[in-house]
Every structure is written in structure tokens, then in C-alpha cells.
Here is the input.
Amino acid sequence: MLKFFYAPNTCALASHIALKHAGAAYEPVRLSFANNQQRSAEYLGVNPKGRVPALVTDKGILTETPAILAWIAQSYPEAGLAPLGDPWGFAQVQSFNAYLCATVHVAHAHRMRGYRWASEESSFADMRRKVPESVGECFRLIEREMLKGPWVMGETFTICDPYLFTLAQWLELDGVSPGDVPRVADHRRRMSELPAVRAAIAIETGQ
Amino acid sequence: MLKFFYAPNTCALASHIALKHAGAAYEPVRLSFANNQQRSAEYLGVNPKGRVPALVTDKGILTETPAILAWIAQSYPEAGLAPLGDPWGFAQVQSFNAYLCATVHVAHAHRMRGYRWASEESSFADMRRKVPESVGECFRLIEREMLKGPWVMGETFTICDPYLFTLAQWLELDGVSPGDVPRVADHRRRMSELPAVRAAIAIETGQ
Here is the structure.
């Protein structure tokens, strides 16, 4: 059985929702970032990067959200989570998820994780001040150019949807008003009502 | 025919090498970052993110290096650039490329593009000072845990190899000594001798 390492309120939620959507059998394993468990020797043996999520399979360990999402889509094709027979459609899915991973999430990370890229308190404060602008710019681009509606890729729900939903959870904390990105906010609301989303969140919040 | 937008000395080189490896017919289109052409209205019509690379196909426009690389691998299967029939192997390729895209390239970008995430000159200077450590940490992890050898995924050359080669081009500028990551340095040297790599670089440098 799969083992899924996550921490609450992280991007791991995207993969967690996809696992639920796919009907995968898995054991969820919670790490506490407050206790720095992601840097423990035991977890570094699972993921030397010290990050979540990590998915332990019978073939080995997989990390990085876009890769885990695509693997879930390919491993549970009956769930229809990506256009597997259509390289162009699949590439569009990959492109959207790469943007979330490398641009949107990275912009967000400057609010709390500035120490990855700088050393001075003054720099961290400067980074925090910039987050509403940098994250806001990303979500306005998604609103205007990328989110086709009703789902990210149009009529069909894909692995892009749980990932967008996950990062959109942080809008208010990042200082971006959901009212500025109404289609993203509506997508978030509709996502929050889906059984797979509720189930993953219930596990992560221990409810 | 494909149209490939790139700028010299950017991550676009990875996709450019893959196009050459695949034997794709394409028209290369150079953007000058010095003249800020990537922010021109004309190019924003191609890629609203104002970044390179962008690949114009008969189906539409594709952006984001991991997505372009995977699309090339899937569209030119005879080139054997990814384990297409093996979801686990493909996921490992995706995972490596996601790490390059979202962690390694992002760490590097703090040397020159700090304005994306902060506003003060003092922050930019702080970020620049941190780059040898943050980029160095990434490449030491690749050296120790990820690069299987002789190619990234082992015996078979994949779309991971041009991407690693491209980011490893910047080691010295990022303050990381190639001597600290000898297997990465050896990979870079072997890559630099491949005809597809030479051909892509010759086009980008106008030689």
C-alpha cells in the first residue's frame, strides 16, 4: 500500500486530494513542521530534500507535486485526472502545474521561508511586503489567461484543479483579496464542496 | 513548423537541446533580454508570463521547461528521450525536472532577479551573497542522491540531461566550484561534446 507523507497547510494537500479522487489505497503519515519533523534523520531517509509531500510506493519514493500528480493520473487512469492519450492536452496540464510549482508557490514561500534565499531580517521583512504583489500578479494571470472554467482545463476536472485549490487556500494570508480574482475564488468554493477535497482536508486537520 | 522562442544564457537551452536531439523541424526565434524584448507587447501575446522558452505549435503555445521537455519526448518517441511506457520511470524524470525548475533554477534566480521577490537593494545584495550556499546545496544533493550516472536516470539519456546541463552552465557564476560536484562537472563535460548540444549552442551564440 502507498504511504503518503504530508504536513497540514502545505502543498501536499494537492496530491492528497488527487489520491482521494483516484480512490487510491494509502496510509497518510503526518509530519509536524512545528516540530521540524521534515528535517529529522528518519524523514531525510525518505526525502533527502526535507520537504513534503513524499509518496512511498512499491517501486520507490516519489517527490515533487507535479510528478506525484501526474503519476497518480497515469496510475489510476479510470479516474480520468489527465488527458493521458493526448500529448498536447497532457502538456498543457504539465505547463499549468509547473507554473504553480515554480512561480506561484515560490512567490508565496517568500512570506515564511525567506531564509532559503537570504540571511538578514531586513530582507525577510522586505520579501514579506512584496508577497501581496508577487502572488497577486500570479493569480491575476491565472484568472485572466489560464483558468478556462469551470475547471482549470475547461469542462474536464484534472490534476490541475486540486493544485490550484491548494495554493488558493493561501490567498488571504498572502494579502491577496479573493474579490480581485473572482473566478479563482469561485473555483476554490466549488472545489471545497467536493467529497475528495473534504475527505483529504478532514484527514489533514484530524477531524 | 514549430517556432521556438529563446534567449541566450537562459534555461531555454534545455528545450533547445531536446529539440535538436529529437530531430525536430523548428524555427528558432531569439529574444534579447538586454533589450527587454521578453516584456514587449508582441511577445506577451505569445507568452503572457514574459519568460522564455515558449514553443509555438500547430495546436497552440506551450510554456514551462518541464512541460516542453515532456512534450518533445512524447511527440518524438523515436528519440527515446523519456520512458514513455513506464509511468514510474516517467514520474522519476518529472520529479527530477520539477526539482530543477522549482528549486535549483529558483535559487539561481536570486542572484540576478531578486526584484521578483523583494524591493530593496540591501535585500538584493543579501540574496546574491546567499546564492553560492543555496545553489551549492542543490547541486551537492544532485551529486549525492540524484545523478545516477552516466546519465541522470542511469544508462539511458533522457530529457533530464539537457536540463541539468543547462543549469550546470551557471555553476561558476553562482559561486559554486565544479570541483565540489565532480560527477555533475563530468556530466557537463560529456554533455558539451554531444552534437545536439553543440548545435543548439551554436545557434544561440550565433556561431
Notes: The CA atoms of residues 83 and 91 of chain B lie 9 Å apart. Chain B touches chain A through 47 residues (CB under 8 Å). The longest helix of chain B spans residues 121-146.
